[in-house]
Amino acid sequence: xxxxxxxxxxxxxxxxxxxxxxxxxxxxxxxxxxxxxxxxxxxxxxxxxxxxxxxxxxxxxxxxxxxxxxxxxxxxxxxxxxxxxxxxxxxxxxxxxxxxxxxxxxxxxxxxxxxxxxxxxxxxxxxxxxxxxxxxxx
Length: 138
Hints:
Layout: H1 2-6, E1 20-23, H2 27-40, E2 48-51, H3 57-63, E3 70-73, H4 75-83, E4 94-97, H5 100-105, H6 109-118, E5 126-129
Parallel strand pairs: 1-3, 1-4, 2-3, 4-5
Helix pairs in contact: 4-6
């Protein structure tokens, strides 16, 4: 978020074209990330939205009609919106694959590869992979 607060928004940023894309393996995790991101962005001009399966499609579609700085999504719903041209991933500057190991073990490899192909070349975006913390028993 600090990067987006320091770097100006690209001229002509289209609605539905996020600057940051966070992909999570489950709806629950994506909604938690969105909640936390909105709390962090509360006193800024940054706009946070989410698209996840199992939630009101039309309501999510309406949220894509404005400028989006950070989009949190599950792979399937993201691809649905991209296929219908409601989301444009050509302006993604930061891509985060949250709980990447879990997402890939859940069978999202083909979907994640497709999503990555829709974003700018790796030289033009930053990519982060995360995994859940390891539990230690003492």
